[in-house]
Amino acid sequence: MYRGFPLDLFMAQCYANADDLGKGRQMPVHYGSKDLNFVTISSPLATQIPQAAGAAYAVKRENINRAVICYFGEGAASEGDAHAGFNFSATLECPLIFFCRNNGYAISTPTNEQYRGDGIAARGPGYGMLSIRVDGNDVFAVYNATKEARRRAVAENQPFLIEAMTYRIGHHSTSDDSSAYRSVDEVNYWDKQDHPISRLRHYMTARGWWSEDDERSWRKQSRKTVMEAFEKAERRLKPNPELLFTDVYKEMTPQLDKQRESLWRHVQQYKEHYPLDLYEK
Amino acid sequence: ITIMAAAARFFVRGAHPKLSFSGVCASAQRSLGAGLLKLSPSCASRTKTHKRHAAHFTFQPDPVPTQYGPTQKMNLFQSVTSALDNTLASDPTAVIFGEDVAFGGVFRCTVGLRDKYGKDRVFNTPLCEQGIVGFGIGVAVAGATAIAEIQFADYIYPAFDQIVNEAAKYRYRSGNMFDCGNLTIRAPWGCVGHGSLYHSQSPEAFFAHCPGLKIVIPRGPVQAKGLLLSCISDKNPCIFFEPKILYRAAVEQVPVDAYTIPLSQAEVLQEGSDVTLVAWGTQIHVMKEVANMAQEKLGVSCEVIDLQTILPWDIDTVCKSVAKTGRLLISHEAPVTGGFAAEISSTVQEECFLNLEAPISRVCGYDTPFPHIFEPFYIPDKWKCLEAIKKMINY
């Protein structure tokens, strides 16, 4: 959001409606934006890590003072792709920031069942990679670490690993009830004592930059904005079903075209059984 | 700054996409995989868009089995748990492992087993599929029984090398000195209504190209338990794909004690004289409905065959049926090109050429990734199958 991706496009993606840049093909929260250099998210874990190394290598060769940043969690760091990505980026001297959000849980799996070393940051030296661990609940610490990582990654053509320590207060997803594997007290502690948003709020309030009134009206306004976007996206039609067949290849293949035609013939013949009215024509 | 986005496997272990952003219905969800499975009746009336989540099939339970002792009402995930429970009780070497299995698994297939049998027998692994399968091969080679869970069949590919180059070839390459026949890999499989690219795949054909593996897919709770127990006791590495849409939707009376259903044996579920319908997993229930529709609307008599084991498959049962009916329709959700229907079609054409009254018909997924919002158009539903039958009859 801070890069300028509009709320309406977030909602369009979540609703897979006709405005979704991803054309309704992926599940919610798989955003992407060409304009904002944000490669579309895919569900498989850690696959982006070696890809980030490749992208950073290409960026380096363009010599345009750019870096790549790659986000993942401490769970994904267990995948084989993570090892490959770390090792490639170090040996091939890629201007790349690995940003690992260590929030304590990969769904139900706590970090002590994920690794027994000193977290993810400690792996950096093993790959010959700069690495730093920051308090992920401290906005300024994260900001400064990232800024320095970017400076060094670009100036020195090398990867930089940041491990931001935090806690997953929410459930893994709305389908998850995390009380099945962790105590409510544990969650409450982090929620009440060490929440990055409340910490920033307290800091700003203490300096007179923010007040209860600001907070209240900001929350009210935000809720309204989100609900409006939500309802708008919900009402919007789904993308044209033709888009089922495009972009498999750059060009439509004869075989796919045949399949597309056969679907249309079929749907015309049996139209009462297909939800055509929900889709753009 | 170029940004490589993190792969948010936000739902990967079972978020309900509708709920993940509606919030309105979130309280209805109680467990991870559960969210993927429920059609959320509490949400059903909320918008017309929910119409697309109506299941494309009606589960048709098997008759209550009488030959295996007392039965109990179980859904498919409970019948899997029951099979695992029987195994852990009878085989002290057996271990069960994978991502999030300790607390019961995102689809609840291992609920209670850790408490009952100990944390050295039912445990979480780090998040790494190639590790899970490689570890499982090692357990099996050392003589113990390994039951590995891959959280979704869509995520099995990092383990492809371990499965295809290692598990499948262990016995052959060692001159039968070593094998990993004690390995069974379980994975949720198939479409679920809103799973999109990475929670819907049916990757059996990839593995069917690999001699040395057995691949099994059940159509309901009774088969799931009997076939899973067969896979576990079979002395070859087996992949057991579980139709995730059936985990809760499919309920049957399932025998409580251990029993096995033979591998590599297809089951004729309904006899017929005009067309043979071959499928497996969820698609069986589509086929059963299609058989009824064909009878009612077209007066066509269909023989329905559940292949059950994809590799090595039961050629005799299928060919015997086609020799009788002269027509064959094969249907699966996976893309049509290179799908297992192609293999069946080719074999039947060789074996039954002179019996065929019409070209063999395949009603399958299109040659695209599995699309989220277009799923109602993508799946090989009953109307497409019925139309294919019409064409074969009128050929």
Automatic annotation (TrEMBL), chain A:
Gene Ontology MF annotations: branched-chain 2-oxo acid dehydrogenase activity; metal ion binding
Cellular component GO terms, alphabetical: mitochondrial matrix
Keyword Metal-binding among record annotations: yes
Its EC number(s): 1.2.4.4
Cofactor: thiamine diphosphate
UniProt KW Lipid metabolism keyword: no
Domain of life: Eukaryota
First and last residue of the signal peptide: none
Chemical reaction(s) catalysed: N(6)-[(R)-lipoyl]-L-lysyl-[protein] + 3-methyl-2-oxobutanoate + H(+) = N(6)-[(R)-S(8)-2-methylpropanoyldihydrolipoyl]-L-lysyl-[protein] + CO2
Compartments in which it is found: Mitochondrion matrix
Keywords from the UniProt entry: Metal-binding, Mitochondrion, Oxidoreductase, Potassium, Thiamine pyrophosphate, Transit peptide
Residues covered by the Dehydrogenase E1 component domain: 1-242
Biological processes, Gene Ontology terms: branched-chain amino acid catabolic process
Protein family (similarity comment): Belongs to the BCKDHA family.
Quaternary structure and partners: Heterotetramer of 2 alpha/BCKDHA and 2 beta chains/BCKDHB that forms the branched-chain alpha-keto acid decarboxylase (E1) component of the BCKD complex. The branched-chain alpha-ketoacid dehydrogenase is a large complex composed of three major building blocks E1, E2 and E3. It is organized around E2, a 24-meric cubic core composed of DBT, to which are associated 6 to 12 copies of E1, and approximately 6 copies of the dehydrogenase E3, a DLD dimer. Interacts with PPM1K.
Purpose of the protein: Together with BCKDHB forms the heterotetrameric E1 subunit of the mitochondrial branched-chain alpha-ketoacid dehydrogenase (BCKD) complex. The BCKD complex catalyzes the multi-step oxidative decarboxylation of alpha-ketoacids derived from the branched-chain amino-acids valine, leucine and isoleucine producing CO2 and acyl-CoA which is subsequently utilized to produce energy. The E1 subunit catalyzes the first step with the decarboxylation of the alpha-ketoacid forming an enzyme-product intermediate.
The protein's name in its UniProt record: 2-oxoisovalerate dehydrogenase subunit alpha
Automatic annotation (TrEMBL), chain B:
GO molecular function, one term: branched-chain 2-oxo acid dehydrogenase activity
UniProt keyword list: Mitochondrion, Oxidoreductase, Transit peptide
Xref: SUPFAM superfamilies: Thiamin diphosphate-binding fold (THDP-binding), TK C-terminal domain-like
Keyword ATP-binding belongs to the record: no
Record-level GO BP terms: branched-chain amino acid catabolic process; response to nutrient
Reactions listed under catalytic activity: N(6)-[(R)-lipoyl]-L-lysyl-[protein] + 3-methyl-2-oxobutanoate + H(+) = N(6)-[(R)-S(8)-2-methylpropanoyldihydrolipoyl]-L-lysyl-[protein] + CO2
Keyword ATP-binding appears in the UniProt entry: no
CC cofactor: thiamine diphosphate
CC terms in the record's Gene Ontology section: mitochondrial matrix
Domain Transketolase-like pyrimidine-binding: start-end pairs: 74-249
EC number(s) given by UniProt: 1.2.4.4
EC supergroup of this enzyme: oxidoreductase
Subcellular location: Mitochondrion matrix
Location, primary (coarse class): mitochondrion
Domain of life: Eukaryota
PANTHER family with a match to the protein in the record: 2-OXOISOVALERATE DEHYDROGENASE SUBUNIT BETA, MITOCHONDRIAL, 2-OXOISOVALERATE DEHYDROGENASE SUBUNIT BETA-RELATED
Task of the protein: Together with BCKDHA forms the heterotetrameric E1 subunit of the mitochondrial branched-chain alpha-ketoacid dehydrogenase (BCKD) complex. The BCKD complex catalyzes the multi-step oxidative decarboxylation of alpha-ketoacids derived from the branched-chain amino-acids valine, leucine and isoleucine producing CO2 and acyl-CoA which is subsequently utilized to produce energy. The E1 subunit catalyzes the first step with the decarboxylation of the alpha-ketoacid forming an enzyme-product intermediate.
Subunit composition and interactions: Heterotetramer of 2 alpha/BCKDHA and 2 beta chains/BCKDHB that forms the branched-chain alpha-keto acid decarboxylase (E1) component of the BCKD complex. The branched-chain alpha-ketoacid dehydrogenase is a large complex composed of three major building blocks E1, E2 and E3. It is organized around E2, a 24-meric cubic core composed of DBT, to which are associated 6 to 12 copies of E1, and approximately 6 copies of the dehydrogenase E3, a DLD dimer.
Protein name (record): 2-oxoisovalerate dehydrogenase subunit beta, mitochondrial
Natural source organism: Periophthalmus magnuspinnatus
